[in-house]
Amino acid sequence: MPVVITAAALTAALAQLPDKAVAIVEALLNMEISLVDDATTSSAPAVAEMLRPAGLYAAEQVTAATVVRAANRRSLPVVTSRRPPARVAGEALSPMDRARA
């Protein structure tokens, strides 16, 4: 199973990591199983639709929405150390994930 991360999530993660951890993330990204999902003009409408219920808070949830969209497109679970925003995650979470959230 591939490890998929969106460009938005990768950017947010790198901004929060200490410098010594960045090399570990870069090594993971260079592995064959890693796939970085880019934000594109063709993906923006689908992500925006997921964000619509968030209203004024949509900008804060862009990363979560891109992660959910990438997971849904590949029928993969969302794996995160953070609780996904309920308004964005909705259908992407399995019943077990929803119980934990």
**Strand content of the residues, in percent?**
5-15%
The whole-number mean of residue pLDDT values reads 77
Judged by helices, strands and strand pairing, the structural class is mainly alpha
> From the alpha-carbon coordinates, what is the Rg to the nearest angstrom?
14 Å
Stretches with pLDDT under 50, minimum 5 residues: 91-101
Number of strands: 2
Largest sheet: 2 strands, parallel
Coarse morphology = globular
Q: Tally the helices: what do you get?
A: 6
What letter string, H or E per element, gives the SSE order?
Answer: EHHEHHHH
Q: Helicity, in percent?
A: 40-55%
Ends: how far apart? 23 Å
Tally of separate domains: 1
Strand order of the largest sheet: 1-2
Structure description:
51% of the residues lie in helices and 8% in strands. The chain is mainly alpha-helical. The chain has one domain. It starts with a strand and ends with a helix.
Compile the SSE list and pairings.
Elements: E1 3-6, H1 7-16, H2 19-29, E2 34-37, H3 44-51, H4 62-74, H5 86-89, H6 95-100
Parallel strand pairs: 1-2
Helix pairs in contact: 1-4, 3-4
